[in-house]
From TrEMBL:
Superkingdom of source: Eukaryota
Domain Pectinesterase catalytic: 83-375
Protein's UniProt name: Pectinesterase
Sorted UniProt keywords: Aspartyl esterase, Cell wall, Cell wall biogenesis/degradation, Glycoprotein, Hydrolase, Secreted, Signal
C-alpha cells in the first residue's frame, strides 16, 4: 500500500471514530498534519458564519484575506459560478444552499466551487437541477459528510450523504463520506451510503468515496469515474447503473482475517441488473483493489448482475473463487462476470467460480472504453 492510500485510510478511520462521538476532537490531531485544518470544520460547520471574521481580538487580519480576488468569476454565455466557503468568504456557507439557488432546468453549466473543509450536511440534488458541477479543492481537502444509516433514514437508499437525481452532474476533486459506525457482516440496518447517483450522464474526476457497507450507490443511468478512490467493506459499489471506472482505487476496510481462513467479510460490487433486457453493468479498467479482509469481486444482488474487470491489479484479499452468486445457483446461468488481463495475486484464475468468464479480446472490447457508456454523446473532457 502506498503512502497516499495509507493517508486516506487513516483520514477515514479518524473521521469514523471521532465524528461518531460528540467531542472537540481537534485536540487528537497533530497540529501540523493535513487533517488538523480539515477536521476543525465539523466544529465550525454548525455555527452561522459572517464575512471577514477577525482571527483574534487584537488582529486586523481576516480568514478571507487569502481568498482569490475577483472570485467567483462573472457569468458567461455557458457558465455561472457559485462559491461555497464555510467561513463566509463568498456566496454561501452551505453546499445545499448553493444547490437550491440553481435555476430549475438551467441549460448553463453551474459550477459550485467548494472551498477546503468538511461540510457536515445532507445534500439533495433534485431532477430539476441539471448541469451542476461540484468543484472541490482536492479529495483530501474538501468533503461532504453525513452519518445516516438504513435504520435512521428508513431504508438504505435514503441514507446517502449526497443524493443526485439531476442529469449531467459533474464532481471534481472532492470527497463524499458517510461516517456512520462501521458494521459487522450480518448487522441489520447499518448500511450507510456516502453518495447515491440516480441521474443520467454523471462524471466524477479525482473524487473520494468513503464509507463501509454500501458506500457508493451507483443507482441508475450512465456514469463515469476517473482516478477516484473508493473505500468500503460490504457491497461498497452497488446499484443498477451502467458505469465505467477508469484508473480507480478500490480499498477494502473489512476486518483482517487470519492467513488461510476461508471466512468472507466483504465484496467490492453488488450489481442489480434484474432482467436480460437491461443494458446496465459495471466495467473497471486499469484499476487497483487492495486493503484488508477476505472479499469477493462481486456478488449477484439480482439475477442478471453484470460486472467486468480489465487490466486491474488485485491483491491477495480477493478470495480464490472471486465471485458469489448470492448463494442462488439458478443465477449462475444469467449473471455475467468477466475478467480480462488482470494481474496480482488476487487475479489468479485457477480456482475461480465456474460461471466466471475469462474474456477474450472480442468479448472484452465493449467494456474497455467510454463507448460502453455512450461517452462520445455526452462525456466532456476534465477541463470543460
Amino acid at each position: 500500500m502506498n503512502s497516499r492510500q495509507t493517508y486516506l485510510l487513516i483520514f477515514s478511520a479518524i473521521l469514523v471514530a471521532l465524528l461518531s462521538i460528540n467531542l472537540d476532537f481537534t485536540a487528537y490531531i497533530t497540529p501540523n498534519s493535513k487533517l488538523s485544518t480539515l477536521l476543525t470544520c465539523k466544529t465550525h460547520s454548525s455555527r452561522h458564519h459572517h464575512h471577514h471574521h477577525d482571527s483574534g481580538p487584537n488582529s486586523n487580519s481576516s480568514v478571507c484575506d487569502d481568498f482569490p480576488p475577483d472570485f467567483p468569476p462573472p457569468e458567461t454565455n455557458t457558465t455561472i459560478t457559485l462559491c461555497v466557503d464555510r467561513n463566509g468568504c463568498c456566496n454561501f456557507t452551505k453546499v445545499q444552499a448553493a444547490v437550491d439557488a440553481v435555476t430549475d432546468f438551467n441549460q448553463k453549466r453551474t459550477v459550485i466551487w467548494i472551498n477546503k473543509g468538511i461540510y457536515y450536511e445532507k445534500i439533495m440534488i433534485l431532477r430539476t437541477k441539471a448541469n451542476i458541477t461540484f468543484q472541490g479543492q482536492g479529495l483530501d481537502s474538501t468533503a461532504i459528510v453525513w452519518n445516516d444509516t438504513a435504520n435512521s433514514s428508513h431504508g438504505t437508499f435514503y441514507s446517502a450523504s449526497v443524493t443526485i437525481y439531476g442529469p449531467n452532474f459533474i464532481a471534481k476533486n472532492i470527497s463524499f463520506m458517510n461516517v456512520a459506525p462501521i458494521p459487522k457482516p450480518g448487522d441489520v440496518g447499518a448500511q450507510a451510503v456516502a453518495i447515491r447517483v440516480g441521474g443520467d450522464q454523471a462524471a466524477f474526476w479525482g473524487c473520494g468515496f468513503f464509507g463501509a457497507q454500501d458506500t457508493l450507490h451507483d443507482d441508475r443511468g450512465r456514469h463515469y469515474f476517473k482516478e477516484c478512490y473508493i473505500q468500503g467493506s460490504i457491497d461498497f459499489i452497488f446499484g443498477d447503473g451502467k458505469s465505467l471506472y477508469e484508473n480507480c482505487q478500490m480499498v477494502s476496510i473489512a476486518s483482517p482475517v487470519a492467513p488461510g481462513s476461508k471466512f468472507i467479510n466483504g465484496a467490492v460490487t453488488a450489481h442489480g441488473r434484474a432482467t436480460a433486457d437491461e443494458d446496465t453493468g459495471f466495467a473497471f479498467v486499469n484499476c487497483m483493489i487492495g486493503g484488508t479482509g477476505r472479499i469477493w469481486l462481486g456478488r449477484a444482488w439480482r439475477p442478471y448482475s453484470r460486472v467486468v474487470y480489465a487490466y486491474t491489479t488485485m491483491s491477495d484479499i480477493i478470495a480464490p473463487e472471486g465471485w458469489n452468486d448470492f448463494n442462488d445457483p439458478t443465477r449462475d446461468q444469467t449473471i455475467f462476470y468477466g475478467e480480462y488481463k488482470c494481474g496480482g495475486i488476487g487475479a489468479n484464475p485457477t480456482m475461480r467460480a465456474p460461471y466466471v468468464k475469462k474474456l477474450n479480446d472480442t468479448e472484452a472490447a465493449p467494456f474497455l472504453s467510454t463507448s460502453f457508456i455512450d461517452g462520445m454523446q455526452w462525456l466532456q473532457p476534465f477541463s470543460s
